[in-house]
């Protein structure tokens, strides 16, 4: 993008009562579900709305990495999941995430920072595939430098 600006996809993820564990906060495994929901909204819904359907036809997760920064307790309001890319190659891309609350005064409460390596996949052939030009063009505006570790 011109002027160095990058896009981030934002997804309002609802919390479910069953997401909590015995310690009265969202269980760690549920955060992976939140990441999945945001990634599906980004790569399937938003990409399909933009006319790019290849991502929803075959993409697999090769790796997850997640840092839990503070507990998240159940409440009625959704949590925000921001999604962007830190790597875009010919046969893979890395999605970065922050799960957080964005407050009215502009401050944020960050619960999780994570990343997922995704590989385009040909379901019929049962093997990885190269990214299409349409996929690359859709994803490119979301590419930015990785966030430093906490």
List keywords for this structure.
150 residues, 22% helix, 35% strand, 6 strands, alpha+beta, single chain, 3 helices, globular, Thiol Ester Dehydrase, Chain A
Task: Describe the structure in your own words.
This protein is an alpha+beta fold. The chain has one domain: Roll (Thiol Ester Dehydrase, Chain A), CATH 3.10.129. The protein is built from three helices and six strands. Strands 1, 2, 3, 4, 5 and 6 form a six-stranded antiparallel β-sheet that branches.
- The number of domains: 1
**What structural class do you assign from the helix and strand content?**
alpha+beta
Main pleated-sheet profile: 6 strands, antiparallel
Strand content: 25-35%
Order of helices and strands: EHHEEEEEH
Number of strands: 6
Mean pLDDT: 91
CATH topology: Thiol Ester Dehydrase, Chain A
Count up the helices: 3
Q: What distance separates the N and C termini?
A: 27 Å
Rounded Rg: 16 Å
User: Uncertain spans, ≥5 residues at pLDDT below 50?
Assistant: none
Global shape? globular
CATH architecture: Roll
Instruction: Specify the CATH class.
Output: Alpha Beta
Portion of residues in helices?
Answer: 10-25%
Oligomer: single chain
């Amino acid at each position: 993008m011109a002027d160095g600006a990058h896009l981030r996809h934002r997804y309002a993820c609802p919390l479910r009562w069953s997401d909590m564990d015995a310690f009265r906060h969202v269980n760690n495994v549920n955060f992976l579900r939140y990441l999945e929901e945001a990634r599906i909204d980004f790569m399937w819904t938003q990409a399909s709305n933009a006319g790019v359907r290849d991502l929803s036809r075959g993409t697999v997760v090769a790796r997850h990495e997640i840092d839990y920064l503070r507990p998240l307790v159940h409440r009625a309001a959704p949590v925000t999941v921001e999604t962007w890319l830190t790597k875009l190659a010919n046969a893979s891309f890395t999605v970065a995430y922050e799960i957080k609350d964005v407050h009215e005064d502009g401050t944020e409460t960050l619960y999780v920072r994570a990343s997922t390596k995704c590989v385009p996949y040909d379901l019929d052939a049962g093997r990885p595939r190269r990214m299409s030009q349409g996929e690359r063009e859709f994803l490119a505006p979301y590419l930015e430098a990785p966030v430093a570790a906490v």
